[in-house]
């Protein structure tokens, strides 16, 4: 079942078209990567999902019904630009924001104390936000975004400014939320995070959706028939046969082995490559190399930009 359906949504500011008939769906319980270069239209879409602005045309359905103001208590939003009140005490502010989401005072206080302790910032409960480090402020904001246990969570560049340890802590928290049934939209330029935690993605460029679907299926769709094979030793005849029958992209000498990256030409199968390697050497590992999301992102954006240029 879909928790979110975006149907032919368009939005224009004066002469700037921010979204052009964008459509996609988000299934319940997944982590959905919303990707695109700067200026692609992601921020406009996120503002529409949060009902900060409204589309000029098209519609958004939440749990099968038109998105409405009543849905705000089921949605959590962590903006890219953090918005805590600097003079206000961290705990007091977190409690205030939890109450705005409809939580009872004692329930909010109990949950917040637990989360502040879990995140290692309980000692800063009564300190003004401006005295907290940037990382601590981001922890406070993430806690306030999720404390009401929303069914649907929108995270805009959540890893920005976090050191590797705290970024990993945040990833673990996001995965815990998913395991508990929360659906998450993750808007980020960090493709390694997309690889690690996203189930599905949509890629937006120049106001249009240019790619969407299951992450694994997308990676398979754009694979280029490249295999990595590692052998324990090498006879000269192996190198010769590989050069003659396949496209050797790279040969790397390792301390106790040799690794080849090889593209299979038309008509060749993985078994053909294995047979050649087995005739000459002992195979330590063999696998197909799928493109990274970073590679797919760059390739698809550049291809779309080229098409747009040719139309002008």
What oligomerization state is this entry in? single chain
| Name of the CATH class of the largest domain | Alpha Beta
- Across the major sheet, the strand order is 6-7-8-3-9-10
- The helix count comes to 10
What class, by secondary structure content? alpha/beta
Instruction: Give the number of DSSP strands.
Output: 14
CATH superfamily heading of the largest domain: P-loop containing nucleotide triphosphate hydrolases
CATH topology of the largest domain: Rossmann fold
SSE arrangement, N to C: EEEHEEEHHHEHEHEEHEHEEHEH
Topology:
Elements: E1 2-13, E2 16-27, E3 31-35, H1 42-49, E4 57-62, E5 65-66, E6 75-78, H2 90-100, H3 105-118, H4 134-146, E7 152-156, H5 164-179, E8 183-187, H6 191-197, E9 200-205, E10 208-214, H7 215-221, E11 226-231, H8 236-245, E12 247-253, E13 258-263, H9 270-280, E14 283-288, H10 293-311
Parallel strand pairs: 3-8, 3-9, 6-7, 7-8
Antiparallel strand pairs: 1-2, 1-4, 4-5, 9-10, 11-13, 11-14, 12-13
Helix pairs in contact: 2-3, 2-4, 8-9
Brief digest:
This protein is an alpha/beta fold and 312 residues long. It is 37% helix and 29% strand.
Description:
It is built from 10 helices and 14 strands. The chain is globular and about 75 Å long. It has 2 domains: 2-85 and 146-220, Rossmann fold (3-Layer(aba) Sandwich), CATH 3.40.50.300; 224-288, BMC (bacterial microcompartment) domain (Alpha-Beta Plaits). The mean pLDDT is 91. Helices cover 37% and strands 29% of the residues. With 312 residues, the protein is α/β, with parallel strands linked by helices. The longest helix is centred in the C-terminal third of the chain and has 19 residues, at 293-311. Helix 2 packs across helix 3, helix 2 (90-100) packs parallel to helix 4 and helix 8 packs antiparallel against helix 9. A 6-stranded mixed β-sheet has the order 6-7-8-3-9-10. Strands 2-1-4-5 form a 4-stranded antiparallel β-sheet, covered by helices on one side.
């Amino acid at each position: 079942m879909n928790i979110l359906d975006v149907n032919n949504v368009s939005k224009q500011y004066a002469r700037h078209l921010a979204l052009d008939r964008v459509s996609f769906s988000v299934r319940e319980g997944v982590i959905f990567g919303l990707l695109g270069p700067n200026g692609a239209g992601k921020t406009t879409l996120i503002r529409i999902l949060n009902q900060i602005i409204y589309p000029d045309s098209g519609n958004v359905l939440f749990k099968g019904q038109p998105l409405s103001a009543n849905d705000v208590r089921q949605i959590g939003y962590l903006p890219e630009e953090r918005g805590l009140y600097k003079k206000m005490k961290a705990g007091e502010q977190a409690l205030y924001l939890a109450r705005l989401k409809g939580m009872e005072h004692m329930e909010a206080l109990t949950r917040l104390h637990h989360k502040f302790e879990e995140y290692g910032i309980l000692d800063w409960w009564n300190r003004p936000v401006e005295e907290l480090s940037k990382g601590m402020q981001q922890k406070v904001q993430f806690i306030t975004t999720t404390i009401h246990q929303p069914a649907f969570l929108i995270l805009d560049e959540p890893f920005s400014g976090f050191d590797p340890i705290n970024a990993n802590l945040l990833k673990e928290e996001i995965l815990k939320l998913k395991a508990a049934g929360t659906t998450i939209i993750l808007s980020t330029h960090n493709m390694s995070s997309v690889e690690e935690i996203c189930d599905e993605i949509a890629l937006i460029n120049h106001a249009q959706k240019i790619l969407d679907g299951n992450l694994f299926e997308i990676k398979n769709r754009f694979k280029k028939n490249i295999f990595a094979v590692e052998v324990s030793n090498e006879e000269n005849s192996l190198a010769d046969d590989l050069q003659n029958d396949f496209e050797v992209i790279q040969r790397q000498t390792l301390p106790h082995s040799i690794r080849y990256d090889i593209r299979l030409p038309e008509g060749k199968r993985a078994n053909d490559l294995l047979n050649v390697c087995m005739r000459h050497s002992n195979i330590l590992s063999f696998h197909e190399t799928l493109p990274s999301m970073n590679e797919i992102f760059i390739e698809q954006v550049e291809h779309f930009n080229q098409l747009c240029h040719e139309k002008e």
